[in-house]
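Study this fold:
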Amino acid sequence: MSKRALKGLILSGGKGSRLRPFTYTGAKQLVPLANRPVLFYAIDQLVDAGVTELGIIVGDTGDQIRAAVGDGSRFGARVTYIQQDAPLGLAHAVMTAEGFIGDSSFVLFLGDNFLVGGIGKYVESFNTTCNAQILLTKVPDPREFGVAVVEHEQVTRLVEKPADFVSDLAVIGIYMFDPSIFEAAEKIKPSWRGELEITDAIQYLLDSGRTVRAATVDGTWIDTGKFDDLLKANEVVLATVSRRIAGELGEGAEVAGAVVVGKGSRIIRSRVTGPAIIGCDTTIEDAAIGPGTSIHDRCLVKNVDITRSIVMEDSILDSCDRPFRDSIIGRFVELHGGSSAYSVQLGDHSQGRLP
């Protein structure tokens, strides 16, 4: 039998409560890693795997997602937007997309998940011999995850946050299904959270005699739904960049290692140590930018020492006397003065003066 042509379904409708205050004003899938929204990496990986017919599930932040992604043509994809009326679970989102998916098989990709190395070989291994394939990764503490019990590459059962050890293989946010998942989603009942859980739908497939294959990923997987994980993912992406200077290195500028400086940006009397990325039309003046740092477009960073941090668009950091470490700073932030050591999370449009 020939292999199936897959569609892609990306979930971008969640509220992102773990990333507040940023997600009060923006979609969590648009938080940047190395100055690109995390959602873009999911789209890239699907397209690289040959999956170019994409549906994106959107919710309250749908207008932002549409504005960022457009029709998908610049990614080499064709995008259809699917409105989910309420965040009622992953299986509910799948049901919402049934009209788009039709009788095709598909890849379900959570829009805030990040996987190093892509999904090409996993898409290739998902063939006509199974009804579903779930991607797994080994974790040190299975009690924090939904885990799969696997025998000979076949999933036998799923256990949500097990109190006792049954498996160290956590289910990550990338799945492959044939249309039998729609039957499963319709048959299950809401969980205690009031949501239709994708794990319950997969368990239904198992209980009804369907075949669910397991594939353990060999690349780093990160769920970017928490601050620390965002910083980790940002470092992972920055580790892949190559030196590229499109902006101006002015008086006293020092650039060491893998550093990207975007068009229209200026580095003046400052040292930038890679891996790091400076966006477009940004000014770095009398500053020290350390490894693991991404500073987005149209920012001013002056008299600041900052390392392993994310600074989003249109923000100003000026004359902060002590260093920033492990910080995430939102859009349109203004931060002036200060003489202490800081680790901060500042949402969009914040203003402050440090003591």
In short: The chain has a mean pLDDT of 87. Residues 227-238 form the longest helix (12 residues).
